[in-house]
Design goal:
Blueprint: E1 7-10, H1 16-27, E2 31-35, H2 39-52, E3 58-61, H3 68-82, E4 87-90, H4 105-133, E5 136-141, H5 145-148, H6 155-174, E6 179-186, H7 192-195, H8 199-207, H9 217-228, E7 239-242
Parallel strand pairs: 1-2, 1-4, 2-3, 4-5, 5-6, 6-7
Helix pairs in contact: 1-9, 3-4, 4-6
The structure holds nicotinamide-adenine-dinucleotide.
The site of nicotinamide-adenine-dinucleotide (NAD) has 24 residues, from helix 1 and helix 7.
């Protein structure tokens, strides 16, 4: 088991990529607090996991990611539940593909607040805990568009470029405290967002992916698992692409 005895917080852990990360971490022996935006979806996710695997140690929380003090409180509560925090996965995020001519300032603020500011809010209290513990690892969720950009919806790639900047800079600052900071940059991945598209559209997107198909959430979660584990003990400041070569 790659994460035996480790503890983790996973934001946006109710569905999609985050849910796959939660399930793989639990399967590999970690105890996990999953965060989501609403009590109902968080409770439902915990219940589903527990029904299938009663022995898994999994808890749910739903802090307001727009509120730094609420996030700080939730990090402290998670630490009380788990005893320590070895791994923080910042996965919650939203995307947008609005044309610049229709873009509103508040749309830009909204995407930056969740995709960038909220990461800073979770990281701030967590690094203090990790430093005291003698180390830990943080994994942020970037995107292939942080390398390629995208032709509409400029807020989303901008936010993911910021995620890369935060990741690489913090990796350099925190290495001396044995805190590794990395990011996973998924390509088109079959989450609710993509699966809800008409098959014709999925086929058109797939044609542009050199691998010929979108990624599965579990394939992306494998990268999180590697970075969270001691197999990546000397890996920090890395933006790990999992995109079927789509970024080019
Ligand atoms: P998803 O929509 O299936 O899941 C998003 C998760 O974030 C959910 O658990 C949701 O509860 C949470 N969330 C959304 N808004 C929130 C809010 N305001 N407060 C708290 N939690 C909130 O999406 P996904 O495809 O699994 O995406 C997960 C991450 O992967 C995101 O950061 C996304 O940008 C990134 N990503 C996804 C793809 C893709 O193709 N699916 C590609 C590249 C990057």
């Amino acid at each position: 088991m790659l994460l035996k005895g480790k503890t983790a917080i996973v934001t946006g852990g109710t569905r999609g990529i985050g849910r796959a990360v939660v399930e793989q971490f639990l399967e590999q022996g970690a105890s996990v607090v999953l965060w989501g935006s609403r009590q109902e979806t968080v409770d439902a996710a915990v219940k589903e996991i527990k029904e299938e695997h009663p022995s898994y140690e999994v808890y749910g929380m739903y802090p307001n990611l727009a509120d730094a003090s609420d996030v700080e409180k939730a990090v402290q509560e998670a630490k009380e539940k788990l005893g320590r925090i070895d791994i923080l996965v910042n996965n919650a995020g939203i995307s947008q593909s609005t044309s610049i001519y229709e873009y509103k300032a508040e749309d830009f603020d909204k995407i930056m607040k969740l995709n960038v500011n909220a990461l800073f809010y979770t990281i701030l209290p967590t690094v203090k805990i990790m430093k005291e513990q003698g180390g830990g690892t943080i994994i942020n969720t970037s995107s292939m568009v942080s390398i390629s950009g995208q032709p509409a919806g400029v807020g989303y790639p901008t936010s993911k470029f910021a995620v890369n900047g935060l990741t690489i800079s913090l990796a350099r600052e925190l290495a001396k405290d044995h805190i590794r900071v990395n990011a996973v940059a998924p390509g088109v991945t079959k989450t609710d967002m993509v699966a809800a598209l008409p098959q014709q559209m999925i086929d058109a997107i797939s044609e542009k992916i050199p691998f010929g198909r979108p990624g599965e959430p579990a394939e992306v979660a494998n990268a999180f698992l590697y970075l969270a584990s001691d197999m990546a003990s000397y890996v920090t400041g890395e933006i790990l692409s999992v995109d079927g070569a789509c970024r080019a």
